[in-house]
Amino acid sequence: MPGRSDDGQRLFARRFTRRRLLTTASVAGAGLAAAALVGCEQKSTVSIPGPRETKPTGALTPTATSTPSIRRGGTWRIALAADPGSLDPHANTSINAKIAAAPVYSRLLAYESGPGKARVSYSTIPDAAEFTQAPDAQTFVVRLNSRAKFTGAVNRTMTSADVKYSFDRVLGRGGGIATSDAQLLSMVQTVETSDERTVTFKLKEPYGAFAQVLADVRALPILPIETTKSFDPARQVAGSGPFTLKSYEAGSLITYQRNNDWHLGNDRPFLDGIEMSIIRDAPAALAQFLGGALDALSLTAADMKRVKDGVKGLVVDLAPPLMIQNITFSGLDFEPPWRDVRVRRAVSMAINRDAMLDESFGLKELKTQGVDAPYTWDGFLPWGITGYSLDAKQMKPDRLASFKFSVSEAAKLMDAAGWRDGFGVEWHYTGGFRGGYPLNARLVAQHLREIKIILRTTVEDYAAVFLGNTVPGNFRGVASIAQSLGEPGNYLTAMYLPSSSRNSGKINDPRLTDMVTAINGNTNREERRQQILDVQDYLADRMYNVPLPNGPMITGYQPAARNVMEYQSHGAAAPVDQAPYYWKA
Q: What is the pLDDT of residue 507?
């Protein structure tokens, strides 16, 4: 059986002062401005339940809501690295667009978060649903919350017709827009509405993680049937989420205010609003955080000393990565060098992963701050998905060989494949991500030069070029593609099924397709987990993508931030799963 990463994770929250580092343990997850670090101590595995009945929405109310010290009011201020381009959650694959839309649009289900809850559990709870039932393996019934209500130009109660409309719009039916995230719902055969509050999803075949699909912010945000008629969803909003849109200044600022009629509300959200400033320049964003103009910011290890000295009482969250970054080979006619698996393996062997972790993620620098981060190499799922990610260092020897840094062995493979003198190709990545992504991308060009692969760098505009051309696979050469794709099976579905718009390398391997399809249809959690591990073992042999290492994603919070460590979940889902519980002292 292939190696596996079953070690649980101790997730650390650290509060810094000017004089010393005080450490407190916390079970937490990727936040509204995501960040991460893990240690390996406690045994655990990720729980990915199949369709099951969820409890009424009263289960959402945390004990913290009765704490008298909570102060209502204030605005939560964060920064986006790029303009979302549109507020329409169906029309845009940008993670910035998902984050921008999430405060105002409901999903049927949400991810559970709160004190004592693991951030990477994938346990679902109701959002616009009151409860769900799965009478059989191919039927999923949702009863809508009677209090879920659209705001703005629509101003009415949500009905089952809105859910069906949103589904059809995502799939491009009835004048819909055929979004590139449609593959997330490809297992659905029909959506039926027996009355105004009941929606029944009939699946083509059993799907082991359908509840997680409905909790994914990319899959089915619920828009009203009046969309495009009563309002322009690219610039205006009529949602039912915890916040309402106040203003959108393209390239500058998006503001939200508290939705006093939120169906899960009463006293929540504790905040009066959210501000998302669009700050493309990382030093400018850091300066604003140091000046107190931002409440949270993604940081690098190199920022740590300056921020620690500049923000008294700084709170830092370090959490496991839930994003995968790959070197992806052009699938347009599968250009000659990439057809040979020896060349793909040589590319992987030329990458010095430990050096990248030091240079891109500052693991040595973190150690000087008293934090020992593990030198973990990503395989084909993010290593933060405990129990499902196949640890590259624990793979079988023949698989591990392709991950070990060896310029001499990589050169031998290039020679054997007929590319002794190397070649030059285009190297595509974007300036739309911060943190380790751009540093990794620059280092790749340096490392591959050692085996005579010369990368001609093109740094692409995130919205105009990268999302529309490179991510769908319409590029020549190689590209650095970063993906954050929800539950484990969907990473494999999105990146490796031929029908997926996120299959950036246009990979079409019948055996791989059969393996991934079998995972999707399996409702047995343990069997499904083993299948996910087996697929990663196969990918390590074929190396259709070359995984790059991910270190800790680090988020700094101002000392006035409260509940930020207790309420953490899955990145872009934060405006429903986390932000309603945040407050400021």
A: 96
Among 561, 572, 99, smallest CA distance to 295 is for: 561
Return the pLDDT at 435: 76
* Homologous superfamily, domain 324-548: Dipeptide-binding Protein; Domain 3 (3.10.105.10)
Chain CA centroid to CA 544, Å: 21
Q: What does the pLDDT read at residue 96?
A: 84
pLDDT value for 202: 97
d(CA 504, CA 496) in angstroms, rounded, equals 9
pLDDT at position 205 = 85
* Residue 272 near residue 257, CB atoms below 8 Å: yes
Q: How many CB atoms lie within 10 A of CB 537?
A: 18
Report the C-alpha gap between 390 and 383 in whole angstroms: 8
- For residue range 458-481, what is the model confidence (pLDDT) as tens digits? 999 988 899 889 999 999 999 999
The string of DSSP letters for 326-351 reads EEEE--SS--HHHHSHHHHHHHHHT-
Residues of the chain with CATH 3.10.105.10: 324-548
d(C-alpha 432, C-alpha 186), whole Å: 29
Torsions phi, psi of 7, nearest 5? -65, 135
Below-50 pLDDT ranges, the chain: 1-31, 33-67
Partner residues linked to 488 by β-bridges:
none
The segment(s) of the chain belonging to CATH 3.40.190.10 are 48-61+70-300+571-584
Confidence at residue 218, expressed as pLDDT on a 0 to 100 scale: 86
Write the CB contacts of 138 (distance below 8 Å, at least 6 apart in sequence).
Answer: 202, 203, 204, 205, 206
For residue 7, the model assigns a pLDDT of: 30
Coil vs helix vs strand at 148: coil
CA atoms within 13 A on the CB side of 215: 30
Q: Which helix (H) or strand (E) holds 413?
A: helix 407-416
pLDDT of residue 179: 66
Q: What is the pLDDT of residue 568?
A: 84
Q: Residue 341: count other Cβ atoms within 10 Å of its Cβ.
A: 15
The CA–CA distances, whole Å, from 353 to 72, 286, 367, 379, 440 equal 46, 27, 18, 12, 10
> Residue 560 half-sphere exposure, CB side, CA atoms within 13 Å?
16
For residue 23, count other CB atoms closer than 10 A to its CB: 12
**CATH top-level class for 48-61+70-300+571-584?**
alpha beta
